[in-house]
């Protein structure tokens, strides 16, 4: 599994390198006065990424360097769930406001980490912690550091 | 004597309420981060970056450095009490520190850690104070060609920092360079490599990427992989037993001194890091000890020496950062980002243009080192109790801190999404053995390298000979080539040995 992901990641980087090279050509290698243009550096770096990624693609196939550990699928799924859930919360932040988003994020992350071992006591603990932590953070950033808060449709 | 006078002035400036508070916050946060298994100084510095930068000036760097050396100490607490290294450099402390704790001497082990960290920190600071101005003066002769060559040399350290797969290291460096290019071209102006995403037109914020890479990914790795929900340590030291003993300090003075000196020299070398320093210090202490048989079974010298090396290397690693603008480790790379975010360019000109800033920061390091002694003595019982908080409560709290921290940088929820994305990238990097430090180096040094190369070429009418005509630049380029070739050769030999 890890080998496949390694291969896929190296191919993705190779494509990224090709994209950067193409973008670089669109900016121009040389400026109007004959000096190095905006595309000069991206083209060089893009080619370098293609070169190193190509080597990594080959290496991931011939497997002479074995990875130290395997992916734990359950672990990876939990991590992706945390990322997606938090991504959704962040996506809705303009509607929810930062206070509600932070509370939801703390609660969601806590529940996913503790999945399989959630009891009533933990739920109360986590809800309390999420509200108290957000309150402290809000006071610190908004009142003390004068950061302008993001206010949602609920007015906070 | 100049350095001494400037330092005294710096200490005086660092005694303002703002800098003192920033140092205190940094040290406290660092201690807590260091105590949490899996989270090291780089994650701590990255998480505190938005808050620290909002303080501005020397207070910002005092806070970030406070996290650095605070975390270095905090790592020892888990090593001794639980036998779990708080971060990589604390690995050696586990051997004897935890053995001491198991036989009921946790207090003695933690106490000598306080003394050794202070001694190591002080010697590292003296090194920093007197060597930094000397190096920066020498570097004043550098022009754009020399600076570009120096950047190339520092990027070639990727070869050292890459671990066992040098090609993955270089690929990571290229990604960092690309990330550094996202946004406005520093010379001509147009927005580049923005993937058609509106939020990337102005570029990627370094702090956002660093928090994702170091903060989120380390949390994912620790909380999910190990399923850590640490229960009570197998021993609970009383407050009284945690008081350091003067007799232990005197008994381990030579181990502390040797560890500190080794830490100083190793810390200066970019890419070598504190872990190597602690391993070498431990080996030296064992070799020269009269009771070398006790090492690994609970020798107090086996705790003192690596802890002194750990802290002295954290200060001496600031020498290349402040004098040449070269970060030698992940943590100093994040601090470099902090310096750039507050509008300062580390390097020789920093000592000329902003001497007050430099010496106030150095002064705050001395104060922070002393502060660490008192705080740790008072806070050890509280720090030990942090380990009793379940990870499923603690890590969601860190998520909340990151959300507020990242949002506060540009008042943009988009940045939090970017940090989450880089959390995934960082996690993949860890699992697939792509080193993260080259990426950070590339992102920080890339724009400077590009500016240096393009300005030199503009001045020389497009001739690359400008890099080879100037002797210092030529030497730096030769060093760069040698660094890469030697590392490739060594990896090749290692590979052949593995095959046979």
What are its keywords?
heterodimer; A: 156 residues; mainly alpha; 2 domains; 0% strand; flat; B: 500 residues; two-stranded antiparallel sheet; 23 helices; 2 strands; 76% helix
Describe this structure in words.
The complex is a heterodimer of chains A (156) and B (500). With 156 residues, chain A is mainly α. The two termini of chain A are 45 Å apart. Chain A has five helices and no strands. Chain A has two domains: 2-62; 73-144, no CATH class. Chain A has helices spanning 2-27, 40-62, 73-91, 93-113, 120-144. Mean pLDDT of chain B is 81; it is low at 228-235. Chain B has one domain (2-142, 203-430). Chain B is globular and about 70 Å long. Chain B has helices spanning 2-14, 17-35, 41-55, 57-82, 91-102, 106-138, 144-156, 158-161, 166-181, 206-225, 246-251, 253-268, 273-288, 301-316, 318-324, 330-341, 348-353, 355-386, 391-410, 413-432, 437-459, 465-469, 471-499; strands at residues 183-184, 191-192. A two-stranded antiparallel ribbon of chain B has the order 1-2. The longest helix of chain B has 33 residues, at 106-138. At the A-B interface, α1, α2, α3, α4 and α5 of A face α9, α10, α19, α20 and α21 of B.
Helicity range of chain A: over 70%
**Overall body shape of chain B:** globular
Report the radius of gyration of chain B as a whole number of Å. 22 Å
Low-confidence stretches of chain A: none
* Class from secondary-structure proportions of chain B: mainly alpha
Helix content of chain B: over 70%
* Helix run count of chain B: 23
Q: Note the gap between the termini of chain A.
A: 45 Å
The average pLDDT value of chain B, as a whole number, equals 81
Overall SS class of chain A: mainly alpha
Number of β-strand runs of chain A? 0
Number of domains of chain B: 1
Helix count of chain A equals 5
The most extensive contact between chains is: A-B, 74 and 60 residues
**What is the rounded Rg of chain A?**
23 Å
Query: Helices and strands of chain B, in N-to-C order?
Result: HHHHHHHHHEEHHHHHHHHHHHHHH
- The chain-level mean pLDDT of chain A equals 87
Beta-strand proportion of chain B: under 5%
Kindly, what is the distance between the CA atoms of the first and last residues of chain B, rounded to a whole number of angstroms? 58 Å
> What is the approximate shape of chain A?
flat
